[in-house]
Amino acid sequence: MVTVERLIERAKAVGLPIANMAFEETEESPVPPPPYLVYLIPHQKKRGADVKNNIKETDFSLELYTDQFALGREDLEGIVEEKVFFDVETEKYIAPIESENMVQSAWEVNGLIQKMKGVKK
Predict the structure, then answer these.
(1) Starting at the edge strand that comes first in sequence, how are the strands of the sheet with 54-67 ordered?
(2) Which is it for strands 18-20 and 102-116: parallel, antiparallel or unpaired?
(3) CA of 64: how far to CAs of 11, 14, 51, 61, 102, in Å?
(4) What are phi and psi of 5, to 5 degrees?
(5) What pTM does this model have?
(6) How many whole angstroms separate alpha carbon 68 and alpha carbon 63?
């Protein structure tokens, strides 16, 4: 079963800098130059009525930021798809970020299902 945690592990294994939501710049840790990855969990829904089989449904997004003029962006996208999303359905979006001379390639996974333990009354 593919979980959000498993997708994050796979994304880390790609070997690029990675952050949850955004990189926080400090003097000791500046934002890395592209390419880098950012992941988000934009939506979660919990459901189930029998108190024993609660289900958590989670959406997951992974964004790859690359230099707009760098060669090999498509190769990096292929590596991410091959190493992270080889067994899940995704929707992919590509958007230029002109003000920063970057390109964002984003993959969305909707409705990862995870059974949770029952809630005690």
Answers:
(1) 18-20, 36-47, 54-67, 102-116, 91-97
(2) unpaired
(3) 10, 11, 39, 10, 10
(4) -60, -40
(5) 0.86
(6) 15
CB atoms near residue 84 (< 10 Å): 26
Longest dimension (CA), the chain: 57
**C-alpha distances in Å from residue 96, one per residue of 61, 81, 104:** 17, 19, 6
Torsion-angle region of 100 (φ positive above 0: left; ψ -120 to 50: alpha; else: beta): alpha
- Residue in 5, 33, 40, 6 with CA at minimum distance from that of residue 17: 33
In angstroms and rounded to an integer, the radius of gyration of the C-alpha atoms of the chain is 17
In tens, the pLDDT along 40-87 reads: 998 887 777 666 667 888 899 999 999 988 888 889 999 999 999 999
Residue 34 and residue 24 in contact, taking contact as beta carbons nearer than 8 Å: no
Which tokens belong to 89?
């359905």
Question: In which residue are the tokens 């989670």 written?
Answer: 58
